[in-house]
Amino acid sequence: MATLTQDHLNNIQAYWEASNYLAAAQIYLQDNPLLKDPLLPAHIKPRLLGHWGTSPGLNFIYVHLNRLIKASDADFLFICGPGHGAPAVLANTFLEGTYTETYPDITQDENGMRYFFRQFSTPGGIPSHVSAHTPGSIHEGGELGYSLAHAAGAVMDNPALIAACVIGDGEAETGPLAGSWKSNCFLNPARDGAVLPILHLNGYKISGPTVMGRLPDETLTALFSGYGYNTLIVRADDPIDIHQEMAMALDTAYEQIREIQQFAREGKKSNSPSLWPLIILRSPKGWTGPVMWKGKHIEGTFRSHQVPLTDVVKDQDQLALLEQWLRSYKPEQHFTPDGKLQPALAALAPSGNKRMSAVPYANGGTDVHPLRMPDYTNYAVSVKAPGESIAEGTRELGKMLRDIFELNEDHQNFRIFCPDETSSNRLDAVFEVTERCFMEHLLDNDEHLSPDGRVMEVLSEHLCQGWLEGYLLTGRHGIFPCYEAFITIIDSMFNQHAKWLKTCREIPWRKDIPSLNYLLTSHSWRQDHNGYSHQGPGFIDTVANKKSNVVRIYLPPDANCLLAVMDHCLKSYNYVNLVVAGKQPSLQWLNMEEATKHCAQGASVWEWAGNANQGKPDVVLACAGDVPTLEIIAAAWLLRKHLPDLKIRVVNVVDLMALSPKEYHPHGMEASLFSDIFTDDTPVIFAFHGYVRIIHDLVHGRPHPARFHLRGFMEEGTTTTPFDMVVLNRMSRFHLAIAAIERAERKPANEAEAISYFEDKLSMHNIYIRECLEDMPDIRDWKWSDI
Amino acid sequence: MATLTQDHLNNIQAYWEASNYLAAAQIYLQDNPLLKDPLLPAHIKPRLLGHWGTSPGLNFIYVHLNRLIKASDADFLFICGPGHGAPAVLANTFLEGTYTETYPDITQDENGMRYFFRQFSTPGGIPSHVSAHTPGSIHEGGELGYSLAHAAGAVMDNPALIAACVIGDGEAETGPLAGSWKSNCFLNPARDGAVLPILHLNGYKISGPTVMGRLPDETLTALFSGYGYNTLIVRADDPIDIHQEMAMALDTAYEQIREIQQFAREGKKSNSPSLWPLIILRSPKGWTGPVMWKGKHIEGTFRSHQVPLTDVVKDQDQLALLEQWLRSYKPEQHFTPDGKLQPALAALAPSGNKRMSAVPYANGGTDVHPLRMPDYTNYAVSVKAPGESIAEGTRELGKMLRDIFELNEDHQNFRIFCPDETSSNRLDAVFEVTERCFMEHLLDNDEHLSPDGRVMEVLSEHLCQGWLEGYLLTGRHGIFPCYEAFITIIDSMFNQHAKWLKTCREIPWRKDIPSLNYLLTSHSWRQDHNGYSHQGPGFIDTVANKKSNVVRIYLPPDANCLLAVMDHCLKSYNYVNLVVAGKQPSLQWLNMEEATKHCAQGASVWEWAGNANQGKPDVVLACAGDVPTLEIIAAAWLLRKHLPDLKIRVVNVVDLMALSPKEYHPHGMEASLFSDIFTDDTPVIFAFHGYVRIIHDLVHGRPHPARFHLRGFMEEGTTTTPFDMVVLNRMSRFHLAIAAIERAERKPANEAEAISYFEDKLSMHNIYIRECLEDMPDIRDWKWSDI
Predict the structure, then answer these.
(1) Cβ–Cβ of A533/B222 closer than 8 Å?
(2) How is residue B669 annotated by DSSP?
(3) Which residues form the Xylulose 5-phosphate/Fructose 6-phosphate phosphoketolase N-terminal domain (chains A, B) (predicted)?
(4) Are B542 and A541 in contact (CB under 8 A)?
(5) Which residues touch A431 (CB under 8 Å, ≥6 apart)?
(6) pLDDT per residue over A294-325, tens digit each?
(7) Which of B208, B306, B545 shows the shortest C-beta gap to A691?
(8) What CATH number is attached to the domain comprising B684?
(9) How many CB atoms lie within 10 A of CB A97?
(10) Based on the domain organization, do B528 and B635 belong to the same domain?
(11) Angle, CA of B626, B630 and B636, to the nearest 5°
(12) CB within 8 Å of A302: residues ≥ 6 apart
């Protein structure tokens, strides 16, 4: 247990002062960086931006973690929940030298320091939050709630790693963070690293108090014991030395972590689950900053959230107070006259890759390996002719995922993250080789459950997403299968991850990150036993809106296409791949060779389904998504049967962005290929899996976009038959056939007759649905399903 | 304290059996509803759908709540987190007679019972979840996580109401639910009703165990004491009478609630916050259902989640087991031969509006009042000429909101829900008349904080949304101001609310519900001191995808338009109104009379900004959103100055859906008006606040959609100047002017010269940004902001 010498304590205090100085100076100073001259208005930045409130607490935690790293030689990753406390994190990367190594223009001297201050939150400089630009970070924190989930994901399969995760009491109010405390039930101390949560209570958000900040110690201790933590509380207002107290708390926490790990790694079994340590640091908001101004408290209140003194240029007294505040950190003592940190202080930080600002975990990972992939064609479904065999796409994919687990067993770098739906989504084959991970006690009736499982099932889309992000950002691979409608729960998390990826692409030193792969199944069109709440394809639109160099959207129409697409996605880096495919038994269209070619091109004419593949068609029938494909092919069949002189061409789109003009998305088809497929002016009837909006957008910029007539999900749904679903949304084969006839360039002779026949069919369907309660048919046995 | 007589206990047991019978029979039977005949395969539904696992526990809770209601005459609202347990909820509405009163075809006799069973989860029947079709419900539960927040919102300002909120252990794993426990810190026992959470632990989700289900009692008790609850545990496996135990727990909980309320309502102050009661019911999943099948446990395991016996038609032994199970509920005893519940049992349920299936709270509310609105024109900003004065739109709106609080003070039916941003969003005027609501202890330095406040600030968008939904669905009014980028946190909650509203419109007995009003400010274009993580306008797309009869999107370009739009929204019912408007000081365009007219029409030509208002223009410059409006007007000014012979027309769109063809949205402009404004074929340069995708969609179906050339947010952002933001996204006045020249129908003479001048300006800007670190300008002082 640490009993630090007075010298060591003094040095820690000095290092903390140095970092607090750099944090405050980033907010305030454009010149006079070491305060060698008296502070003048001209030294102050013209616009004061940045968040002071959380920064001194972050600096305090950081210097103490440094001490522990030096003492233990352990691997620590720093996750900064209050990412707007960038002045603190940046200050430490600067003190450790990593900032200069990463950005050589920011030298470790007076001039470098001036630029370091100037660039903060300035146009042409760096963002005001801990962004991808910050060395050592995998977590921006601008949107709060995900720090603890990121930390847990990062330590999975990284047994040597401890993620120190600072959580502000603002962030602690969010739902996703509240749901993240129980991540400890899914971390296996034998194979995974550890998360050390440090809950930093400074009492306020932007302008109001925080709930946790007002709770007494015993209430918090009870709460966290319920979550499986042993709480160590450090209070800034205690009379005893705060540094000594923090050092002891960290040493205790570290020892408890190592004890739990050693116990587990020696294969011992505990009777009761171990309590992981958690540190609560209670400190004033804006700690060590200005105490009062004009009779109002600043330190310890919401008034220090951003810039505590805002009128320093105009108000001489305030400028004096600022100078007094900045000088209280003794820059002239802690830095040499040429702006270097005093060697005695610099020696406090770890060196090389042990520096939290330089850990390889935070930039592509350590000991990383591309995923070993089996040959996806091994899992091919036999398709002798289109529409003659039935398969369940996800069940076939499950076999490939099973083999991926086996092939990469020695690297321990692949996991499935899923909200309790792996079996429901028919990926069960994976349970032949792995299990669901769970650390609570097991019961006789449990199936496929073990602390060693690599399938992470928790009924929280937020946790699945947060863990997976943490896992990927540290260089490993994964997939997130989810019910389609409920993936929108993590819309905003996806947004932030896509922004992170986009930013990383612009930062030369950022290494490649394995892609985030979504498999959305149990989709909107096949909710036979759920209903309207489970019917929502909107995630496609959310993904499509992000930067085109990071997003990919695939709608494989059958099992072989699903395999080809997933093979491609799982091998890729730096993307978000969205794959939407049903799990239900359905007709198969392409053999593996055709599927491979089709997926590579993104969209193609399915010649066997139409009758005008070469010459100019009267109408093009296009589709994207498995259910729309079935309906379009059925519509084509109906048209060929009832109106054989109508020239139709059938097109399937598997890579949605192929529709986009190339200048808007790298997967966009060349103009000539687009014209070959869709012609330049033939009317197109397009059946789409999602909301039609996005297709209207994608074809904007293509020849004659107005000729595209769309059908898709129009927010009509309930618990009903699959065929009734397409009728309700006016996307049934009959609707499509009628639309094709009405819009075809050349009117076929018996047009009216055919339309009337199709309308009759729809009337019969509606009667059938009304009569369902009388007849009680098997709704799997949907009357109109046969082509 | 309840010590129930044996008779009473027997009756409760019988009522529970009757409801369990109806729940199981809804899943299985299409005929022989009272089992008068031996059970045959022909009596079984052809497809077995529904969720049994949670149903008997829900029935158990329901009958006990009924006992308490009868004993106390209290107002209880039943919130069913496990909404897929609809068989149980529906069973109770049927037993109480409410179902028959609501749907007279489902009579209270044998034939009605048969239809009641048949309709469940059948095409043409009712959904498989507790949907808007279910009397007494304000909560569907298909997407888990929001039950407790809905319950809290429902009891706000309903002092007589107790919301009994059943939370499954699956739902308890979600982030939003975990974040909802602390709703009790925001409920004031003096003025609000109470939430009684009933955590129903049955141990399993779809196929895996639940975290909470595996935690020991003492761990859960500690956890919930940390959240401010006094936990009462009822265990189904206890040897003592489970009914007696549950009755005592409910009586205890009820007494504790009334004690807390009485204390508060008598104006007494407590030294420590009261612990609200919470009941944990531990019962087996699929309780009272089949115990085993072929050596595997069903009751008490995940195997009873949905349909516990699936082969009853084909397997004679299984059919026998089903019959034995169903008969164990003694339908022949509990129902009369003609299918009525035995009078002695029927007498157990409350009557009239006390029935939880009939409480008026769940259908439009009790004692409801339209919001009294001040005359919005009172808050008009003086605009003598366009672009000459500056105002902050949200600051003006704050004054109107302040007066709404005052005007509706006696009805206590209006609140603001906001994630700690009321001041940041410049709505502070409301703090002249009310405060932030907070129930923890207050400190000297707190500002605008009180248990009586009507501004609900919590750093959780999920809680803000959930509380507001609960508040609205019980007939009150509210508004949710939020940072634009972070509203996507509740995308999926909005989806479900929009679906609920859409469904309610199709149900004649559902009463009107006040609209859900979003005010998105601190928007993507003005994040001077945050950055890329705070830049995301995607919520517009999420809203636009929902059913057009419930969604409205407004982008008021200035303060007067914001006031006119918000007046309209706050008075409306049954919609989701999305309003996007900045908070920063900005130029004002319209006086109140003009603003009112403009907002009513949705889009109009701003004649003063163009030079071709009557004749045919060479190019139309259109805009939607405050920043795009500024840039378009500046572009028009530049064009008129540099190319005076170019005929331009400026159009502003305030009601986004006005662009849509009328068949797709009721706000869609008539074709003739659209043509009057945009012409039929003139090129349009359109600057849009959000992603351009949606405009491409909205104009699809209008004459010559390909002529619309869009500029908008293209995922470029960082901490920079407002003007740099529009440059980065190619939407600056110079970009727009160049695009207008390049696309104008008639080429002006000095075209090349003008383009080159504008390109020079952009180069100068880029140099300026690069030099910012040298010059350190005030970034509010953006060099190109003046028109």
Answers:
(1) no
(2) P
(3) 4-366
(4) yes
(5) A422, A423, A448, A455
(6) 999 999 999 999 999 999 999 999 999 999 99
(7) B545
(8) 3.40.50.920
(9) 18
(10) no
(11) 140
(12) A53, A204, A205, A206, A207, A208, A209, A285, B447
How far is Cα A188 from Cα B159, in angstroms, rounded to an integer?
47
Which residues are paired to A197 by β-bridges? A165
Q: Answer yes or no: do A655 and A576 share one domain.
A: no
Q: What are the φ and ψ backbone dihedral angles of A150, each rounded to 5 degrees?
A: -60, -45
Which helix (H) or strand (E) is A100 found in, with range? Answer: helix A98-102
Residues of chain B neighbouring A227 (CB-CB closer than 8 A): 223
CB-based burial label for A595 (10 Å; 0-12, 13-18, 19+): buried
* B486 contacts A182? CB cut-off 8 A: no
Residues of B in Cβ contact (< 8 Å) with A123:
719-721, 724, 769, 772, 779
Where chain A has pLDDT below 50, the residues are 785-787
Q: How far apart are CA B200 and CA B164, in angstroms?
A: 12
**What Cα–Cα distance (Å) separates residue A125 from each residue in A289, B19, B29, B771?**
25, 67, 69, 10
Q: Does residue B563 lie in a domain region?
A: yes
Predicted complex: ipTM over 0.85 = yes
Give per-residue pLDDT as tens, B570-618.
999 999 999 999 999 999 999 999 999 999 999 999 999 999 877 899 9
Chain A residue with Cα closest to B719: A127
Give chain B positions within 8 Å (CB) of A491. Answer: 488-489, 491-492, 538, 542
Spatial separation of the C-alpha atoms in residues A301 and A208, rounded to whole Å: 9
**Is B394 a member of any domain?**
yes
Query: Would you state the structure tokens that stand for residue B526, as one six-digit string?
Result: 């003005």
**A46·B779 Cβ contact <8 A:** yes
- Cβ contact A179–B180 (<8 Å): no
Nearest chain A residue to B184 by CA distance is A211
What residues in B contact A50, CB-CB < 8 Å?
A: 529
Cα–Cα distances (Å) from B165 to B161, B187, B251, B359, B378, in that order, read: 12, 15, 16, 15, 43
Question: Cβ B696–A691 below 8 Å, yes or no?
Answer: no
Residue B773 contacts by C-beta under 8 Å, 6 or more apart in sequence? A115, A118, A119, A122, A124, A125
Q: Determine the distance from the C-alpha atom of residue B362 to the mean position of all C-alpha atoms in its chain, rounded to a whole number.
A: 15
- Pairing mode of beta strands B516-521, B576-580: parallel
Q: Which of B15, B36, B11 is nearest to B341 (CA)?
A: B15
Contacts with B122 from chain A: Cβ below 8 Å? 719, 772-773, 776, 779
Measured distance CA(A178)–CA(A227) in Å, rounded: 10
| Segments of A326-457 assigned E as strands | 390-391, 414-418, 436-437, 449-450, 455-457
Residues of A with Cβ-Cβ distance to B420 under 8 angstroms: 170, 205-208
Q: Per DSSP, what are the bridge partners of residue B20?
A: none
Q: Under a CB-based contact definition with an 8 Å cutoff, are residues B281 and B307 in contact?
A: no
Quote the radius of gyration of chain B (alpha carbons, Å): 30
Going by C-alpha positions, the residue among B381, B304, B296, B293 that lies closest to residue B586 is: B381
Structure tokens at A729: 């949304």
Instruction: Select from B361, B385, B411 the last residue of a domain.
Output: B361
CATH of residue B525's domain is 3.40.50.970
Q: In the listed set B310, B331, B361, which residue is the last one of a domain according to the structure?
A: B361
Q: Say yes or no for a CB contact (<8 Å) between B503 and A532.
A: yes
Task: Check residue A294 and give its pLDDT.
Answer: 95
Q: What are phi and psi of A437, to 5 degrees?
A: -85, 135
One domain for residues B330 and B422: no
Separation of first and last alpha carbons in chain A: 75
Paired strand residues for B709:
B685
Which residue does chain A place closest to B224, by CA atoms?
Answer: A223
- Residue ranges making up the domain that contains B431: 376-586
Instruction: State the total domains in chain B.
Output: 3
Residue B95 lies in a domain: yes
Sign of the alpha-carbon dihedral angle for B504, B508, B514, B519: positive
Helix (H, G, I), strand (E, B) or coil at A32: coil
Is B185 in Cβ contact with A301 (below 8 Å)?
Answer: no
